[in-house]
Amino acid sequence: MSGRLVRTTRLKHQAAALLAFAALGGFACGLLTVADGTVRAQPTPLPKEKEKDADDPDKVDTRDPLPADSPQHKARERLQIPNRDRAIFAAIEDFKPVARHDVNPREHDAWIEFVLHAKKQNTSELDEFAIRDLVPLDFKNMARAAYRTELIRFDGKLVCVRRLMTPLQLRESGITELYEARFVPLDESPLTPVSIVFIDLPESLAAVKNKKENEWLDADGWVTASGYFFKTMNVPGEQANAVVALPLLIGRGLTMRSGPPVPSPNPIALDKNVRIYKFIKDDVKMTRIAPNDATWPEVSAYNRVIVHASRFSAEQLEEYANGDLKFADLFEDSRRDYKLACVKFEGRLISLRRVEVNDWLSAAGVTEMFEGWMIPKDEPRGNPICIVFSEPLVGVEPAGRVNKWVSFAGYSFKRMRYESAEPDAKTPAKGIEKLAPLLIGRGPIARRDPDTPPPVTWSDFGNAVMVGGVLLVFCAGMFTWYYRGGDRKAKAEMDAVRHRNPFDPNAPPA
Description:
Blueprint: H1 2-36, H2 71-79, H3 87-90, H4 105-119, H5 123-129, E1 151-164, H6 168-171, E2 178-185, E3 194-198, E4 217-218, E5 222-236, E6 243-250, E7 254-257, H7 296-310, H8 314-320, E8 342-354, H9 359-363, E9 370-376, E10 385-389, E11 399-423, E12 431-441, E13 445-446, H10 458-497
């Protein structure tokens, strides 16, 4: 114990000596600097009363003198609702209507706080800095609580708009009008709409002012809607007894658009930054119907890619697709470089069948779905690719085995596990499980089979008839010219002897 105390005392004395020496050195340097006439930056000495707290983390300024962040980050922080951990925000209840003051006063106060904060903002700035990588289903699951008060943006198709009752607290703050619009985000189904409450009404929607409060006005057009996520509330669906979980945003206004956003230079490109695309899992079977809590992101991603592909024709997809890939490019590790990229293959379609269409896709206008297997050309081992599409192949019945040469452009979704037709030696009743790339597109295009002679078309037949007719006319003309020449010669000879007396001895011989 005494030894430890001695060492501690000695260290303290050494530290004090070093501090004294440093202070004297600093004083001397300061005198030299002043004498030199030049001002140089020196370490800021700690006040005497703070010297003993220099090693205390709670009493040391750890802030960066020049934060290494970007203007966008600073702007987003400035736009955010302050003090987001307040009790009034924790009292917001999902899957219920927005509460009245007498039902849930804290939620009602939070509602007022959201609207007043949105009033201070600029719509174009909200559009610029809002989060864009979420989908409506993100706000239906447990993770929605993490997005409470976050600034979210969606681009979509406007469905309807209405004028709301303005609470007294808002009217006293200068807000006289409050509106709600519902829209379907891009690449989403009408079963997953989004609602936004806002203050500034675009001129193109001025007709809603002639409606009564809470009376909907049907609307059309593309919009950008940015607002703060307040809650997910249940609203009646279009079908009987149906309920739709609706994310509710609160913003300043709507930005009207002439059409859907078009990426450049590739107008068919998918936004790969969407969060749910990160949950696509390779080397597992594809789940399409009745997803659970673990698989819903991949099923949602699958549905979105199908809807996105249905917006374009098969020819458009092929025009912008990457057609320089081989089977191995989507099977080996390099497949990650082409995830969700549009790629094109040509080959033999060997199998085609219908697959079930879920309600989400049906509501989005996708009424048919097909699954095919094709072997790409120049694939020496005959490895197949699975293709999923929504447009039927004309003239080919989706009843199992087929034999059709086609081209197909689709988005590379995943490397999928499937049960092949090759029997498993350990379990003869089952096939061996293998892996294959899965592409999602609009539909295959029939092409000429390189293994069969080209068929004779009506166009070819018509051309052959025309050429044959020309040859016949030419030959007939040549024969006519030839025989008419002989006829003239014979006629001249007959005319020469026509009046000669065959018994006159003085007549020349014929």
